Amino acid sequence: MRSALTRLALAAIVGLSAACSAAPAQNRPVRTDTFVAGLGSEPDSLSPVMGYAADGGSLLYDGLVSRNADLTLRPALATSIPEVKGTTVTFTLRTGVTFHDGTPLTSADVAYTYRSVLDDKNDSGIRGDYAAIDSVEAPDATTVVFHLKHPYAPILQRATLGIVPDGSLEGSGFEAKPVGTGPYRFVSRTPGDKIVLEANPAYWGGVPAIKKLVLAFSSDDNVRATRMAAGEFDAAELPPKAAARFENTDGLTVHRVPSADYRGVMYPMNAPVTGDLAVRKALSLALDRAAMVKTILAGAGRPAFGPIPPDTTWHNPAVEGSPTPDQAQAVRVLEEAGWAEGTDGVRARKGTPARFTLMYPAGDSLRKELALAVASDAKKIGIDVQPTGLDWDAIEPRMSKDALLMGMGTPFDPDYTNFETFHSRFAGQGFFNPGHYKSPEVDALLEKGREESDPATRKQAYDAAQQRIRDDEAWTYLAFLQHVYVVRGEWTGVAPSVEAHEHAAGGLFRNLAEWKPAA
Amino acid sequence: MIRALARMAAWRLLFAVPLLFAVTMGMFALAKASPFDPVRQYLGDRALTTSPEIAERIRANWGLDRPLIEQYLTWLGNLVRGDLGDSRSLHRPVAEVIGDRLGWTLLAVGCALVLMLAGSLVAGVAAAWRRGSWLDRVITGTAYANEAAPVFWTGLLVIWLFAVKLRWLPSGGLTDAASTTVEPGDVLRHMVLPVAVLAFSQSSWLVLFVRESLIGTLREDFVIGARARGLRERTVILRHALRSALLPFITLVGARVPELVTGAILVESVFSWPGVASASVQAALSADFPLLAALTLLATLAVVAGSLLADTAYVFADPRVRVLGVS
């Protein structure tokens, strides 16, 4: 209710106020003691075991490893990045690290954290991500050994999971007072409002310059923009259109951060129209991705042609296309495949009209606008795409028959989500490969990429898989989104890196502990 | 009379038991009929990257695969033992969640109730006293307009005026975003707008009622008599007329409790007030059944208690009224 009602009314109100007051954002002196970050979505749980910041970026916890801005791994609680040998990985722990409650970190805590994720009684939403782990052992206080069920190279990427003290999740006290080893420790939480953190004076990586940190939550984009303008926030994540008013404002910096968060059309492969490669290829050719990025995303994005974002090392540069449409070529592809022009402007082949439904989640205005844009571009080449807004619960049973505007993507490892999205083993399993895409070649490449530990061999496998998926036009990718942040004041240490679909990995704020006021 | 009252209270409470049964059973039936999948809401964004096998396991852990009646009896059994279960969306025991938030709701609603009663009495009396004047027209007109305006709309208008344009008061939350502790002064500043909006939005009925009732009473013989005896106008209005005009007012207040609950839900949501009412919106949106069930139970109890209190007050206010069960 809040989102629908308030968004509508506040959009009007904020627009009005911006128009009549045109008051520039107040330049309040930067506070060095307390930093307030305005965020859109509040984590349900602060426990890494339940999935909080499992991909790193949590300021409360440390994983065995963490990430540099270029997404390469660096040791955190481990002393070095180990090598994956077959089905065994051994981490050696840093010594002298203590939790916020003063207890020293040992390998028992690490083993406990991973075992808790894997324990199906804990209802952890991320259990599936760690399914490759067979057991975790702690032979001595500083050694942790992971035994895997099968060779699984991305295990190192999964080691960003925050570590909690042994036994801390028994009972219900953890959510009220979470304990980790991270640069910030928990002070208080007002659900629906904010979480207050303070610098950990005993942090092994050095005490952060920002001493008090408030994560303030406000799900409404316009409210967040207003509170940013009013000086309540020192930084905020905002949608591109709401951030536009802060461009060229003294004392404020707008950061546009690339992400792996794509939007694309998922095709049901067994349906008569979308099952035809020519239709999929022609549609991809006919789309004006440049216009979608410019108007629908307000410039905060880039055209997409595959599931792996261009700013990461795993991207295959050969998988590209033209951001502008080529209708003539699209029509040629359709004609050659026998889709002849019909009387009502819709092409047909052997009595089958080139018509399909494109579903989108009804509450998501971005996907709705993209679906409408796809339909309008498709119409120009004689394909009738019918956009239909539905609830997720209504979408799920229809995914094997109707196309869907989906959004996913993580930049960390090409195995993430892609294995389940394109491997035939997962065909029709919930939201994994909902379109029943089947390609033995892609299956083999995905398996190879998962099992090989040599980065060069993996890169080769994923390059080939990306090419194959593009050749099959398994999905039609539209755009990668950019996440937009507004930051007040001058800071050093701000290090944007390609972000995931969710803001869960902290976004721009993932390394806030390293930010320092510029002199 | 006290014994009679106690008997009435006992009767009411006895009656509340089947009512609560009906409400909770209806709630379970509705939850079962709801098209929303609680496991999907629980997983959130991760629903798309979670295998159906894990989702099924969570469903089984929650007992959602059991027959409806078994789920209901389990829940009821736990409730009787004082265990409200764990909130699925907040990952904490429901009792703890409600305990954290109930105080803030009682504070806001309590202040709003006092403000509403005082405000509508003053406005209603003023309008009746100066019937037909511009003051009366302004008060009556505002009351009608307010009755027609949805609460959230009033709330947003007030935010725009006082928080965005004038910047006198904060737009929401319990404390300033940057404050790391809860200071009374800070909370007080944040309370002004939500309390005022809640009180104002619920007041039109009462203002109009006080005005009508008082105008009617002013025509009665005893008022005319009082005036004829040369009593001061203030004494006539406040001591004689208002007193008798106010009797049904008490019932009306009791009957307004359900709307106060609805109003609180909207106001708490608009102003990000961390009370139980805004938690119920969150619980509903995330299909968090254990939390939603406990909050519905709480709201039902509030309504039952509200009408009981009103009836009790009525007995004290008007000696002519006989308590149920005493002829």
Q: What report would you give on this structure?
A:
- Chain A has 519 residues and is of the alpha+beta class.
- Chain A has two domains: 31-217 and 489-517, D-Maltodextrin-Binding Protein, domain 2, CATH 3.40.190.10; 258-481, Dipeptide-binding Protein, domain 3.
- Chain A is 25% helix and 22% strand.
- In chain A, strand 7 and strand 8 (194-199) form a beta hairpin.
- The relative contact order of chain A is 0.15.
- Chain B has helices spanning 2-33, 38-43, 52-61, 68-80, 94-129, 134-148, 151-165, 184-218, 221-228, 233-245, 247-255, 257-270, 276-285, 289-317.
- Chain B is built from 14 helices and no strands.
- Chain B is globular and about 85 Å long.
- In chain B, helix 8 crosses helix 10 and helix 12 packs across helix 13 (276-285).
- Chain B is mostly helical.
- At the A-B interface, helix 1, strand 1, strand 7, strand 8 and strand 9 of A face helix 2, helix 3, helix 5, helix 7 and helix 13 of B.
Radius of gyration of chain B: 24 Å
Poorly predicted runs of 5 or more residues of chain B: none
Residue-averaged pLDDT of chain B: 83
Structural class of chain B: mainly alpha
State the total count of DSSP E strands of chain B.
0
Quote the distance from N terminus to C terminus of chain A: 45 Å
Number of domains of chain A: 2
Features:
heterodimer, A: 519 residues, alpha+beta, Dipeptide-binding Protein, domain 3, eleven-stranded mixed β-sheet, 13 helices, B: 327 residues, mainly alpha
